[in-house]
Amino acid sequence: MPRASRPRLVPALLLLALGCWPLAAGGREVGPIVSTPNAPILPDNGCLDDATGTGQGGIADVIVVPGSQVFLDVEVELAITHSWRSDLQVAVDYSGSGTGPIRLVNNHDGSGDNYYARLGSQATVACSSPSACGTASNCSLPGTASWCSPDESLAAIIAPGSGVWTLSVCDRAAGDTGTLVEWRLDFPLLDPVELTSFTVE
Ligand SMILES: [Ca+2]
Ligand SMILES: [Ca+2]
Questions:
Q1: Alpha carbons 10 and 126: distance in angstroms, whole number
Q2: 24, 48 contact by CB (below 8 A)
Q3: Count of CB atoms situated within 10 Å of the CB of 36
Q4: pLDDT tens digits, residue range 159-176?
Q5: What is the Å distance from ligand 1's center to 9 Cα?
Q6: What is the dihedral sign for C-alpha 132, 135, 138, 141?
Q7: Rounded to the nearest whole angstrom, what is the distance from the C-alpha of residue 83 to the centroid of ligand 2?
Q8: Which residues are CB-contacts of 13 (< 8 A; sequence separation ≥ 6)?
Q9: Could you tell me the distance, in angstroms and rounded to a whole number, from the CA of residue 90 to the centre of ligand 1?
Q10: Domains with residue ranges and CATH for the chain
Q11: pTM, rounded to two decimals
């Protein structure tokens, strides 16, 4: 799967200043860390007027990343079956950040089935785009997940890593339902960190 590459100096320097460093190095990727709840997204039309799309009123599932790991980036992969994709509202919340829930998906496409996508801040195509999950023909089959950017950027999480990650999914309209089959966290490495010369006094 293609990846845009771009050094992110500011987070790297921030991590240095905090005395931490991503455990992974040398071009590897950490993950995926997988949860397979295989749970129905209940209830139908159950977002409880959740206009912000943070999954309120649906189901929640948790991944706990152990240890004291800190990374530069995070991606969330979704495997959801549904008979009317635009019913879905999805958000992720990380205990280690002060951002609150980050809205990943809200009202993408119309009647298209299912939602298979890998959501990352480095992707240049929005998941709501017709070339990603915005048409009935894309984003619908296992193993063909689009790599695309969510509604709100995961880059808001400055130092993703260890802690509790909660995915919330709800269904915002009556008539069709679905199931959260699986979701994954990935901590991809960006380009090798480029450090320009600087002095510490
Ligand atoms: Ca449909
Ligand atoms: Ca529905």
A1: 24
A2: no
A3: 12
A4: 999 999 999 999 999 999
A5: 43
A6: positive
A7: 8
A8: 195, 198
A9: 18
A10: 28-190 (2.60.120.260)
A11: 0.81
